[in-house]
Amino acid sequence: MIPGSNREHPTFIRSFGYAIEGFRTAVATERNIKVQLLVGVLAVVAGVVLRIDALSWVLVLLCIGLVLFAELVNTSIEAIVDLATQDLHPLAKRAKDIAAASVFTLSITAAVVGIIVFARALGML
Question: What is the pTM of this model?
Answer without folding.
Answer: 0.87
